[in-house]
Hints:
Two copies of one chain form a homodimer.
Chain A: H1 8-18, E1 27-28, H2 31-37, E2 40-45, H3 55-65, H4 68-72, E3 75-78, H5 82-94, E4 98-103, H6 108-116, E5 120-124, H7 128-142, E6 145-146, H8 153-169, E7 175-179, H9 184-196, E8 201-207, H10 212-219, H11 243-250, E9 253-257, H12 259-273, H13 279-289, H14 291-294, E10 301-306
Parallel strand pairs in A: 2-10, 3-4, 3-6, 4-5, 7-8, 7-10, 8-9
Antiparallel strand pairs in A: 1-2
Helix pairs in contact in A: 1-3, 1-8, 1-9, 3-5, 3-8, 5-6, 8-9, 9-11, 12-13
Amino acid sequence: MPTYAADLDTVREAAARIAGFVHRTPVMTSETLDRLAGRHVFFKCENLQKTGAFKYRGATNAVRKLDAASAATGAVTHSSGNHAQALALAARVRGIPAYIVMPRTAPLVKKNAVEGYGGIVTLCEPTLAARERVAAEVVARTGGTLIPPFDHPDVIAGQGTAALELLEDVPDLDAVVAPVGGGGLLSGFCVAARGLHPGIRVFGAEPLGADDAARSKAAGKWIPQTAPDTIADGLLTSLGELTWPIIRDQVEQIFTVTEDEIRAAMRLVWERMKLVIEPSAAVGVAVVLSDGFRALTGVRKVGVVLCGGNVSLDKLYW
Amino acid sequence: MPTYAADLDTVREAAARIAGFVHRTPVMTSETLDRLAGRHVFFKCENLQKTGAFKYRGATNAVRKLDAASAATGAVTHSSGNHAQALALAARVRGIPAYIVMPRTAPLVKKNAVEGYGGIVTLCEPTLAARERVAAEVVARTGGTLIPPFDHPDVIAGQGTAALELLEDVPDLDAVVAPVGGGGLLSGFCVAARGLHPGIRVFGAEPLGADDAARSKAAGKWIPQTAPDTIADGLLTSLGELTWPIIRDQVEQIFTVTEDEIRAAMRLVWERMKLVIEPSAAVGVAVVLSDGFRALTGVRKVGVVLCGGNVSLDKLYW
């Protein structure tokens, strides 16, 4: 049996490490959503987490686990998304520098958000190769520790803490659904939930326009994401070396949804639950509302992670 | 000393009566909002109440207080706003009919919402006189009981239950702020909060474009609202015969804010707190962010009611 990058023990250690630094987010319900889903749905509101996304859990766990000598030289990452803000704030709270490499094409609002949390931004060309190369240069120059957005044991364990809270609040869930991009949230959620309740069923939620996890599961081997096309901008990346084995072996199935389903689910949550969620979070909601998921038997109560709420309010999405 | 339409006792009776029928809504905080307000701010999230507004408290209290004979013939009101939906659902939950008189100019989405909750809609001309006349006709025809949107002891007491919960969660508030239209929420909040904590300071929040409560307080006599002009469509009405004496005698001050301040506060709450609030709810937020309110001394912790989240998502408000 393979060893995985995280398990219930490391998630519990993470929970103890980050307690008091992250919000214990509420679990919300909606009679309307229950009716539409055909079962009881419990929403874990990570859009209400600090920095507006679950990413703050993994970043905080990784930053607080650094020993004093490593911490002194700071944390480094390359990201234009929620991990960048999360790492910047987690570092500031610990009182250490955060060096964030961002593509020069990133929206100014994201750069400003990172700098607002005290992050030191280095811009680079908008390619993965350039990002990795510049991040390596920053590490070499500063002696900082690279904390990647998902494919890291401490990051995966940190994301899993959301599952511990959800199952403490609603112990008799039959299944959980988490969106999957790089797989940090889904894999952390999976090892935590199944560690606590071995019989619980774990599903991934993915846009049809970035369905590398669904295709990898179907093929039984890792397939990279190429040319993703979806409004769910948190779910564009391929699975990682550490997240893929967990998803391969412990996740039952990945459900995919269309862009129209994502938009409709997003609007529904804003309108009926009064919660601002980002498109990536709507992907999980769209899955539980889909015919395929509704057809599952034996799932009376399902938990869904609303993974984030960071979205431009300069436009409508529908 | 005058007798008022509601007091701590009637609010406590209301709380016992509606327990289990209404949500105990969460109280949320935001470090960003705290920083901008210059003090600790606690948001009572009535936008997460059933039907999306605090109105469900008063409607439920009034409907459940009807004796069996009165209940059998149903409840009647005239409203195109949140009270209409609240009364429709409160009646359906009790299993009695709700007759809702709405102006024929009301948006179709509001008529559909009321009918979605099982309300029986009668359309009328869009004048207060026509609404009152048609409502009287419906009462005469059905034998139903008129439950007005704010100027009723059971409605005021029901709205006050939100203050009991807020002060149970945050007992050491120095002040509370509630938006004021007809005054049902503010007067109920006021008698409940001051009944529990006589020293607590109670403030009203009003759009400059519908500032009858501020002008009435300043003049020491009731002044009706004429030609209101504000996006805060829940705050257009004049104070009532029952709400005005409470506001006159027990509310310390009404603060007014501009349309730009309301829009900015609304966007801020959507963006930073990830909560969908309607313009009327943003009025209270705008007040705590205003220079006038920030200049108050001796207010370390303030509670603000986010009164509702029912807003069209077909447009942006900024």
